[in-house]
Amino acid sequence: MKLCIAEKPSVARDIAKVLGATASKQGYMEGNGYCVTWTFGHLCTLKEPHDYGPQFKSWNLFSLPIIPSSFGIKLIPNKGVENQFKVIERLVEECDEVINCGDAGQEGELIQRWVLQKAKCNKPVQRLWISSLTEDAIKEGFSSLKPAEDYKNLYLAGNARAIGDWLLGINATRLFTKKFGGNKAVLSIGRVQTPTLAMLVQRQKEIDAFTTEEYWELKTKYRDVVFNAAIDRLKTLERAEKGLEYLKVNPFEIVSFEIKEGKEKNPRLFDLTGLQVEANKKYGYSAENTLNYVQSLYEKKHVTYPRVDTTYLSDSLYPKIEGILRKMYPYQELIAPLLEAPIPKSKAVFDDTKVTDHHAIIPTEVPPSQNLSREEKLIYDLIAKRFIAVFYPECKISNTLVEGKVGTIPFKTSGRQILELGWRAVYAKEPKEESTDKEKEKEEEQTIPEFVAGETGPHDPMIHQGKTTPPKPYTEATLLRAMETAGKQVEDEELREMLKNNGIGRPSTRANIIETLFKRKYIEKKRKNLIATQTGIQLIDTIEDELLKSPELTGEWESKLRRIEKGEYEANLFKEELIQMVTELTDKVVYGKGKVITLQDEEKEEVKEKKKREPVQKKELQSWEETKCPKCKEHNLIKGKTAVGCSDFKNCGFKITFEIFGKKLSDKQLLDLVLKGKTSKLKGFSAHPEGLTEGVLSLPDDFQVQLG
Asked: Left (φ > 0), alpha (ψ -120 to 50) or beta: where does 301 sit?
C-alpha cells in the first residue's frame, strides 16, 4: 500500500479522487492500492524552553541564552492534532511507501518532514511536486514523482529558518521583556518582525522631524504651453518677484525641440508580493487578506500555487498557454487578438533560470465559477488581466522635450503621448489611478505643438508658490516592497528582481509579520497608512544592537537561507552564527543600563492612575539584576531556582532563600528585606526554632535573616 500525506483535508480529497481512493475512513481515504491522509498544516512544532528543563519555565535573565544542545520537535497540544497524528503514525507503520503530497514549498516540506520524523518513518519516501490542484496537474505530478532526497536542502533551509527564529525570538523576547518590560507585558522581538518595525519607526521619525518650507518657482506660458524655469527653487518671495520682473522685459526663445519615440514595457506576471501590493493599492486589501483570497482560489483550482517569489514562467509551460487563454471565457474579447497569431515567447515571461520551485501566479485551465466571493473575483481579475497583458505588444509612446530661455534663465517642458496602446488596451476600461503628483501629470498631458529652435516671441511669466512635503508614511503596499528589497527604494522591476534574494522574510510570511506588529500594538493603521505607535518607537530606540533591527543584515540572513536551499551553505553554520549573535546580545543587554518602556494602553491610563500607581510601580520595576548586593555592595543580585544571591557568590557568599522559617516569600517581601533591611509584619511561619508564627523579618549586619 502507498500512503499519500497531503497538507489539508480538501487537498487530500482532490488527490484521492484522481487516484481512485474513494472509500472514506476515519482520518483518511482508501482504495486502488492507496491510502490518502492529511495534516492540518503544522501538526508538529519545535519544543518550547520548558521542554528542555523545568528551570526554563520561568523567565529569568540569568538563565539566558537558552541554547538546546539539539533541537527537538513535539506534537502541538491539541486533541484533534493528536488523533490525526495517531492515524498517520499507524498508516506509516503499515504502508510500503510514503508519497509526500505536502504544499510544494519550504514550509510545506518542513511540515511533512517533521510529521514523518515524529512518526519514526523508515519507509521509502517520494515527493509529489505540483503547481496547481487541477486533475491534469495531479495526474502529471504522480507520473513524475521525485525522490525525497531531491528536496533535502529545501527541508534543511526550512528547519534552519525555524531554529533561527526560535533562537532569536525566544531569547531576545525574554531578554528585552525582563530588562525593559517592567513586569507588565511581553516585548516581542523577531528575526524579521523587528527590522520591519525599525523601517516603520525610521519613517515615522523622518515624518515627525520634517519641517515644511515654502518655496517659489518661476514659470511662463508660451504658445499655450507652460514651461518651468530649470533653476533651483527660490527660498524667498522677494527673489521670485525680482526674477518675474526680469522675465517680463525679455522675450522667450526656443533653444531645442526633440521628439523621441519609445516603448513602455509590459508589466510582469505576479509573484505573491506583487499581487498583495496591487490589491492593497487598488482595493485596500491587507496583505493577509489577499493571501487568504488567492489561497482559496488555488484550492478551488482557478489559479496556480500562490506563495511564490518569481515573476517568470518555465519554458515547459509555453505549449499550455494557448489552452489556458481559450478557457478564460469571461475575457474572450481581450484574448481574441492574441489568438490570431502564435503566442509570443518572450524572455521577459519565459526564463527557466529565474524559476526555482514554482513559476509566477497565473490562471489555470479551470475557469472561475459563480460561487466565488466578491473579493476572490477581484483577485482573480487582477491575475487574469496581468496574464493576458504580458502577451500583448509593448505600449508605444512619444516623449517630447522642449528647452527654451528668457534672457539667461533656462526653461524646459515635456509631454508624453501614447501612440499605440499595446498592453494598456487590457486596462483601457478601468478607472485611471490617481497620481500622487497632479501638477506634474497635468504638465505631461499638455498638447505640445511643433516648435522650431531659434523662434522667439512674447510670453506670460508667473510665480508658482509651493511647500515641501514630508516623506510619505508606509502603506501595506509600500512596506511589502520595502521588505522585498531590504529597505531600498527601488522602482526598476529588473533591479528589484535581483534584490529579492536579500529581501527580509519570505513572500508567504510577510503578511503574518505585519499582522503580528498590529497585534502587539507596535503599529496602527490610519486610513491606508501604517503608523508606528509610541510603544513601537520606544522598543526600537531601546534596541542598540544593529543586527536586530537592520533590514540589510536581516536580508543577508535571508540570502544564507536561500543558499542553504540551493546546497551552497551549511545549515549548521547558519545556526552557529545565530547562537554566537544571541550570546553576545544577551551579555550586552543583561549588563547594560535598564529603562522601562511605556506600553500603548498605559499611555491612556497614565493621567488617571498616576497618583495611585507611581509608588507601587517603582517597587515593582526594581528587578533583581538591577539591585546591588547589600553585603559586598559591588555586584548585582541574581535570581536562581530557590534563592536570590550575589552574582559573585563564591567570594561574597550573600544569599536569601525564597522559603524562610517554612514560609514562601513573594518577590516584593524579599525586595523589602534586601532594600529596607526588614519586611512588614508577616504571618504563616511554620518552621521557626522557637515556634514563632508571625512577626517582622530583618537582615542584621551579619546578613543572617531573623524573625522578631
From this structure: left
The amino acid at residue 85 is: F
- The structure's pTM equals 0.78
- Out of 305, 312, 331, 392, pick the active-site residue: 305
The three cell numbers of residue 492 are 526598476
- Residues contacting residue 437 through CB under 8 Å, at least 6 positions apart: none
Q: Quick one: which of 239, 587, 210, 662 has its CA closest to 409?
A: 239
Residue 212 to residues 202, 209, 217, 436, Cα–Cα distance (Å): 18, 10, 16, 18
Model confidence over 68-87: pLDDT tens digits? Answer: 999 999 999 999 999 999 99
Split at pLDDT 50, 70, 90, the class of 360 is very high
Q: Which residues pair with 660 in a beta bridge?
A: 663
| Number of neighbouring beta carbons within 10 Å of residue 488 | 16
Instruction: Name the grid cell of 116.
Output: 514523518
Q: Is the pLDDT of residue 497 over 80?
A: no
pLDDT above 90 (res 484): no
The DSSP call for residue 569 is S
Strand pairing category for 395-406 and 252-264? antiparallel
Distance CA 611, CA 275 (A): 52
Contact 181, 597 (CB under 8 A): yes
Residue 258's pLDDT is: 95
Strand order in the sheet with 523-526: 474-475, 529-532, 523-526
Which distant-in-sequence residues (6+ apart) come within 8 Å of 200 by Cβ?
474, 479, 517, 523, 530, 531, 532, 536
Residue 579: CB partners within 8 Å, gap ≥ 6?
65, 67, 167
The predicted structure's pLDDT at residue 67: 95
- Cα–Cα distance, 573 to 577 (Å, whole number): 6
Per-residue pLDDT, 620: 42
Residue 437, pLDDT score: 55
Asked if residues 281 and 488 have their Cβ atoms less than 8 Å apart, the reply is no
Residue 328 reports pLDDT greater than 80: yes
Name the pairing type of β-strands 34-38 and 44-46: unpaired
Residue 689 in grid coordinates? 526554632
How much of the chain, in percent, has pLDDT values that exceed 90? 66
651 C-beta neighbours (distance < 10 Å), count: 9
Contact 460, 221 (CB under 8 A): yes
Residue 618 is predicted with a pLDDT of 37
Residue 486 DSSP one-character state: T
Q: Does the active-site annotation cover 305?
A: yes
Are the CB atoms for 571 and 159 separated by under 8 Å?
A: yes
Q: The sheet that has 409-420: what strands, in order across it?
A: 456-457, 252-264, 395-406, 409-420, 225-229, 214-222, 460-467
Which of the pair, 640 or 295, is modelled with greater confidence?
A: 295
Q: CB under 8 Å to 596, separation ≥6 — which residues?
A: 180, 181, 182, 621
Q: What is the four-CA torsion angle of 344, 348, 349, 350, rounded to 10 degrees?
A: 90
CA dist 627 and 624 (Å) reads 5
d(CA 16, CA 25): 12
CA 326 from centroid of its chain's CA atoms: 37
Q: How many CB atoms lie under 10 A from the CB of residue 265?
A: 12
Q: How far apart are CA 130 and CA 670, in angstroms?
A: 62
Task: Tell me: pLDDT of 157 over 90.
Answer: yes
SS3 231: coil
